[in-house]
Write a structure and sequence with these properties.
- The protein is α+β, with helices and mostly antiparallel strands.
- It is 17% helix and 28% strand.
Length: 65
């Protein structure tokens, strides 16, 4: 099976962001509180949807369960 073409992916730079909602936010649920700062590492994301063939390559290569 062909390997995935990495040129189809974009780098999303990591960084810090505020996750969650304030109690005063309209329509926020209690599981969204409290707000917190999270630091996410950089990652790659595909420009288009992942095909079944590409998903199979990932499963075969990673042994993901």
């Amino acid at each position: 099976m062909d390997k995935i073409n990495t040129a189809d992916y974009l780098l999303v730079p990591g960084g810090e962001f505020i996750f969650g909602a304030c109690e005063s936010d309209y329509d926020s649920a209690s599981e969204e509180w409290p707000r917190m700062k999270l630091n996410i590492p950089s990652f790659h994301i595909k420009r288009t949807v992942v095909t079944v063939k590409e998903w199979k390559v990932f499963l075969d290569d990673s042994h993901y369960e």
